[in-house]
Amino acid sequence: MVAYKSKVVERIQLPSRERRERALEQAGYNVFDLAAEDVFIDLLTDSGTGAMSDEQWAALLRGDEAYAGSRSFDELESAVGEVMGFSNVVPTHQGRGAENVLYGTLLEDGDVALNNTHFDTTRAHVANQGADPVDCPVARAHDLTVDGPFKGNFSLDRARSVVDDVGSERVPLVILTVTNNSAAGQPVSVENTRRVREFADEIDATFVIDACRFAENAAFVARREAEFADAEIGEIAREQLGYADALVMSGKKDGLVNAGGFVATDDEALFEKCKQRAILYEGFPTYGGMAGRDVAAMAVGLREAVEEAYVTDRIDQVRAFAAMLEDVGVPIYTPPGGHAVYLDAGATLPHLSPDEFPGQALVCALYREGGVRGVELGSFAFPGTDRPELVRLAVPRRTYHDEHLEHVAETAAAVLETRESIDGLEIASEPAVPELRHFTASLEPISS
Ligand code: F0G
Questions:
Q1: How far is the CA of 34 from the centre of ligand 1 (A)?
Q2: Region of residue 357 (left: phi > 0; alpha: psi -120 to 50; beta: else)
Q3: What mean pLDDT do residues 156-175 have?
Q4: 23 with 146, same domain?
Q5: Ligand 1, atom 2: closest residue by C-alpha
Q6: Ligand 1, atom 9: nearest CA belongs to which residue?
Q7: Are residues 295 and 314 in the same domain?
Q8: Is residue 242 a part of any domain in this protein?
Q9: CATH of the domain at 422
Q10: Which of 35, 296, 342, 404 could disulfide-link to 184, CB 3.0 to 4.6 Å?
Q11: The pTM is what?
């Protein structure tokens, strides 16, 4: 049941079909290059794109902009303590700032980091230290159609075989990403988290949880893990996060803010090291690259994220959106995750081979048809890897209503009707770094 009503609204409009065609062409068939005002329903990301509550806007005004010892920092510290159970916090400008601070402290050249699946900035920060990021998803994670309660889990078998190969002394870091964004936003069970803790102890590694979507994960645990059937979201979150030595957090997700992030830990020695690195890259440790008002809003957002009514509405909205798409026959990754619905572009456009970028062709078709912006996560974004051809439609928090999502389903249905005529794409120009090509490369239709 919906847990909020609108107090401020923002005008949006569907540009004419002609304008959409022109905008797409001018953007080089890359939706990252579209002007946001040319987009009607923007599902590019759930990161920093949500609506803040009236309480958060009020907190913004009360933000304390002191360089050192800001009251807003004290508020963040108590929110992180009460909601997540950690006593030391180092604020950063966003999640990747936290990754730089923590992974720059924990990793050295030649190390190996294990993760259920590295998100792309995580992978890049691990690699930036000269270390090797190795994914350990469970086998089901990349099966688009099999049902399963916790397809985001960390595979201990896979992790043990990596350790057998490289030796435990090369593996100082084990990361668990909840929910598993790169595996369609699938949740991780608390039981799996306990096993990962034991494994990290066995190999004497630091155990970090990437907690970006910790509240959504806790909501899935409440529904799917029998032991927690009667537990409150806040209790589950504290239990799960409590197994880690440290957290990296992007406040732009379950911090319910438009900017911000942090590292949290109870380990005093690690805290000291992170603070020193934060001063170098982020700012003094009581603001860390954030305005004091944003710190204050994030403190409120963290508490709101674990409210039962908020987070239930959140994952139910994504589930209802998935059902709308399935009802019109769109092949999707099942079950839907916590923040997005992932479309199976390979099954939608079977006449296109991976080198004709079916995912990107679908992204362009959705925009052309209905002004909807999603993001490709297939052979265009991950060149040279053997990934399914997915398109992510991420749902910003507390932003769109059922009518908006119905428009997306109607758009997808219209695209399905003309699917045989959808052309593949080829790269027209691309940047030097292949891992980042989907942000800035331009494409053109193959038949042009
Ligand atoms: N970790 C995970 C699991 C993420 O999903 C993200 C961001 C980050 C770290 C980095 O956080 O953006 O605040 O620097 N994910 C966004 C997305 C960008 O669209 O999924 P950030």
A1: 21
A2: left
A3: 98
A4: no
A5: 119
A6: 95
A7: no
A8: yes
A9: 3.90.1150.10
A10: 342
A11: 0.97
The answer to whether residues 327 and 405 touch, using CB atoms and an 8 Å cutoff, is no
Mutate to test the pocket of ligand 1, among 103, 135, 179, 181 (most ligand atoms within 8 A of CB): 181
Pair (402, 334) in one structural domain: yes
Residue 27's pLDDT band (cuts 50, 70, 90): very high
Cβ 47 under 6 angstroms from ligand 1: yes
Residue 246 placed within a domain = yes
Quote the number of domains for the chain: 2
Residue with tokens 């799960």: 240
Best mutation site among 103, 122, 182, 250 for ligand 1, i.e. most ligand atoms within 8 A of its Cβ? 250
101 is written with which tokens? 């601070």
Range of the domain at 141: 54-305
Pair (210, 330) in one structural domain: no
Mutating to test ligand 1, I would choose from 135, 212, 290, 438 the residue with most ligand atoms within 8 A of its C-beta, which is: 212
| Phi, psi dihedrals of residue 104, rounded to the nearest 5° | -65, -25
Side chain identity, residue 338? G
Tens of pLDDT, residue by residue over 394-442, are: 999 999 999 999 999 999 999 999 999 999 999 999 988 777 789 999 9
Mean pLDDT of the chain: 96
> Closest Cα to atom 18, ligand 1: which residue?
47
Task: Name the domain boundary from 285, 305, 325.
Answer: 305
pLDDT digits (tens, 9 = 90+) for 286-337: 999 999 999 999 999 999 999 999 999 999 999 999 999 999 999 999 999 9
Look at residue 353 and tell me if it is in a domain: yes
How far out from the chain centre does Cα 11 lie?
26
Lookup: tokens for 384: 């040279």
